[in-house]
Each structure stands twice: as C-alpha cells, then as structure tokens.
Amino acid sequence: MGEMRLDPENLNYTIIFKKNTGDCKVCSIKDAPIEILDFGSSHVKVYEVKTEVQPSKFELQGERFKSSPSHGYEEIIVDREKHGDNFLSLNPEDIAKLLSIVSHRVDSLSKYKIGGNVVINRYLSGHGAFDLYVLPIPKFEGKGCSVCKDNSNTLNREIYRGENFVIYTKFAPISNVDIVISPIKHLSLEALDEVLMFDLAGLIHKLLNALSSKDLSIIIYESKEKHFTLNILSGDVSVYRFLQINEINESPEDLASSLRAKFST
Ligand SMILES: [Zn+2]
Ligand SMILES: [Zn+2]
User: Fold this and answer.
1) Which of 2, 121, 133, 227 has a 20 to 30 A CA-CA distance from 262?
2) What number does CATH give the domain 3-263?
C-alpha cells in the first residue's frame, strides 16, 4: 500500500510506495473488470486497482499529524490486451473514441465523493492503457484559472493556435519535452463534444508524429477550476512526478528501525 505524506515545513508531498519494478501493472491485474466498453471492433476494459493510493495517516491540510478524511482511488483503462502500446498507430478517430471513454470514466467517478484531484497518464512504450488516479491531496489553488492564464501567455513558446485549441511548451518544463494542448475556452474534459474531441485527437496525432519518439508520456489533467490540459512529456512520467510529488520506496520509520538495530549492537 502506498501512503501520502505532507512535509509541514515546505508543503511538499511524498508518496511512499514499494514498486514491483519488473512487473507490468496491466499484465499483473487479476481481478475482473468493473466496466467493459466498446472500442471499434475490440473493447476497453476498466479495472480498479487497490494497491497504491490510500489515505495518509497524517493530516494533509491544517493541523499536523492528525488522521485525514481524504482518500484516493485508482483504475486502469486498458485498450490493448496484449503487451505493448498501440497508441502511435491509432488514427484520430480512434484517439477521439479513446479520449471519450476516458472522459466518460472521469464523469462517472465525479458522482462519488472521492475528491477532484484526477490525473491520468499513459506511457507510449508501456502497456496500452490509461492509468487514472484520484489523489488524496488537494489541488493547488491560485487566483483564477491557471490554465486560462497560461493559454493567453504562451509568447514565443507557442507551437499552434487554432479556433479551439492552443499548443505550447511549458515555461518551466519538468522533462526535455513538456508540451501542453489545451482548449482555449475554459472547458473540462467531460465538456468536450464530439467535434472538439476529434479536433483534439487530430492535434495529438500530428504532434506525436512531429515528435517521432516512443519515449513519451501523455498526461491528462484539470486545474482546480476544471480547465483541461493534455500534456505530452518525454520519458516515463508518473502522475506523481507530473505533480512534483516525491516518490520513495521505504518509509522513514522502516529505515530508522533498521538503523536503530545496527546502532544498538
Ligand atoms: Zn503488460
Ligand atoms: Zn480556465
């Protein structure tokens, strides 16, 4: 089980999670899907994952070190049963269909009180699946919508501006490639209709062709004000790294315990 913690001094989060590095997360799923959706001639299967996200033992907002009422959720939306990803060979129609399925899942989850910090990632050299997290931490709250501000302040980082979407490189990237595609209007993913979804899919397709790499991650995110962005980053970028959350494998208590034992001998 993973555990989220907040450093009370600098308000940085850490997730402590023992990773099985060798195993493919999708291939190691054992439970039955919670939903099966049509995807052209095949299906998309949705699986709930209960190993990684859970509430912190410690208060995440306000007073230090009290139990937190917040909790997380994770599911994997699989469109390719076999190992490997097929995303780069999908045409814009298929990409649009797939994004609509992801949007449908986000919409379904909004009925439950599991919080609004939804982040979805997909590594293009991984297994063909979107990994959807609802993280048990609050979103960054600024004044007004941060995405609306960024969209109108792209300057010489702008790659494309059409009627509906803008594409630009991030001002302070976290990877060599860190590109944002965002609706110019203040819209959530769930609010995109078929026409906008197809427009978006075409832009993703074009951008991935231009980047011509498989070592890329797609991250879907919405600001606190629910303005949607689709981000393309180089490397295998976890949702934690995207949010600049530290990932560690061993709890400080476990490390202290093993060192304590050595000190006493
Ligand atoms: Zn796999
Ligand atoms: Zn906005």
Assistant:
1) 2
2) 3.30.428.10
Average pLDDT along the chain: 88
Q: Which-ligand-closest: CA of 127?
A: 1
Domain ranges of the chain: 3-263
The ligand placed nearest to the CA atom of residue 184 is 2
Confidence at residue 11, expressed as pLDDT on a 0 to 100 scale: 75
Q: Write the DSSP string, 16-56.
A: E----TTS-TTTT--SPPSEEEEETTEEEEEEEE-SS----
How far is ligand 2, taken at its centre, from the CA of residue 184, in Å?
8
For the CA atoms of 120, 251, 51, 130, the dihedral, rounded to the nearest 10 degrees, stands at: 20
Res 60: pLDDT: 46
Q: Is residue 135 pLDDT above 90, yes or no? A: no
**pTM, to two decimals:** 0.89
Q: How far is the CA of 237 from the centre of ligand 2 (A)?
A: 24
Q: How far apart are CA 258 and CA 265, in angstroms?
A: 12
Strand order of the β-sheet with 42-49 is: 35-39, 42-49, 73-78, 129-134, 118-123, 216-222, 228-234, 178-183, 165-169, 158-161
Taking only Cα atoms into account, the Rg of the chain, rounded to an integer number of angstroms, comes to 19
Please report which confidence band the pLDDT of residue 69 belongs to, taking 50, 70 and 90 as the band edges. Answer: very low
CA distance 248 to 82: 30
Taking 70 as the threshold, does the pLDDT of residue 1 lie above it? Answer: no
CA of 130 to the centre of ligand 2 (A): 24
